[in-house]
């Protein structure tokens, strides 16, 4: 009888505490999907294909607002640009993997899977790196899918007058607040928020508020950080 790798189980255990944050996030994603007119099946398919919390919620909101597909996809790309840094950082540990394993690893790449894996690799050179990563990433994926479906079922069964339109914005606020650790992040948040509001009020077409605000906010944060570094 085949045995399960101990490193894979270690990855599952390492990701366990993080599921406490993933589960409610998945529930909100499911509720938001049906609130915007997606079926439960569509919500699951969307969650399986995208598998990226923040960008998934943003895409759902934009689809609900009838934004052009190019804007929806572009917004997801901008939000997920950070994964390029994760990929570059973890790639040396996966250099000897097959192309199929690398493709699977790229699909399972999340903030949480990257964080627990890179920490383990730094302190234990004997770890089966892919098994550990797969244990963490796959368990996060499974909880995300289950809770998304649960949220979609919950949302589809709620009376429309209850309204859950506030759910997605609250999750974004919950993600945002812990990141405000210095002047640069504060400036990025403030400028991005003001620009997004200004774009909406100005009636700029194609729902470009997220993309424009993200780019300008990042530039503002970089400017503040650069000025602080020169001081």
Describe the 3D structure.
- The protein contains twelve helices and no strands.
- It is an all-alpha fold and 231 residues long.
- It folds into two domains: 6-167, no CATH class; 180-231, no CATH class.
- Helix 1 (6-15) crosses helix 9 (129-156) and helix 3 runs antiparallel to helix 9 (129-156).
- The longest helix is centred in the middle third of the chain and has 28 residues, at 129-156.
Give the key terms.
12 helices; mainly alpha; 74% helix; Brnchd-chn_aa_trnsp_permease; cell membrane; Inner membrane protein YgaZ; 231 residues
- Rg is 19 Å
- Uncertain stretches of 5 or more adjacent residues: none
**Helix/sheet category:** mainly alpha
Principal-axes geometry comes out as globular
Mean of residue pLDDT?
A: 83
- Please indicate the percent range of residues in DSSP E strands (runs of 2 or more): under 5%
How many distinct beta strands?
0
Helicity range:
over 70%
SSE ordering: HHHHHHHHHHHH
Sheet with the most strands? none
Distance from N terminus to C terminus (CA atoms, Å) equals: 64 Å
DSSP summary: helix tally: 12
Summary, kept brief:
By secondary structure, this protein is an all-alpha fold. It has helices spanning 6-15, 19-35, 40-50, 53-64, 69-79, 82-90, 99-107, 111-123, 129-156, 167-176, 183-202, 209-230. This is Inner membrane protein YgaZ.
């Amino acid at each position: 009888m085949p045995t399960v790798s101990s490193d894979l189980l270690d990855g599952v255990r390492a990701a366990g505490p993080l599921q406490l944050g993933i589960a409610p996030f998945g529930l909100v994603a499911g509720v938001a999907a049906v609130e915007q007119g997606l079926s439960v099946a569509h919500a699951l398919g969307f969650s399986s294909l995208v598998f990226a919390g923040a960008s998934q919620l943003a895409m759902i909101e934009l689809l609900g607002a009838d934004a052009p597909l190019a804007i929806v996809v572009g917004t997801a790309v901008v939000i997920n640009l950070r994964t390029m840094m994760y990929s570059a950082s973890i790639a040396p540990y996966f250099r000897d993997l097959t192309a199929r394993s690398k493709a699977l690893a790229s699909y399972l790449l999340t903030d949480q899977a990257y964080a627990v894996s890179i920490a383990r690799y730094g302190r234990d050179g004997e770890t089966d790196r892919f098994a550990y990563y797969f244990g963490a990433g796959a368990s996060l994926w499974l909880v995300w899918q289950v809770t998304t479906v649960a949220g979609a079922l919950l949302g589809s069964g709620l009376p429309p007058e209850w309204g859950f339109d506030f759910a997605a914005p609250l999750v974004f606020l919950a993600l945002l607040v812990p990141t405000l650790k210095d002047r640069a992040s504060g400036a990025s948040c403030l400028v991005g928020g003001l620009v997004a509001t200004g774009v909406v009020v100005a009636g700029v077409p194609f729902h470009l508020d997220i993309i424009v605000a993200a780019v300008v906010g990042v530039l503002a944060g970089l400017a503040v950080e650069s000025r602080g570094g020169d001081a």
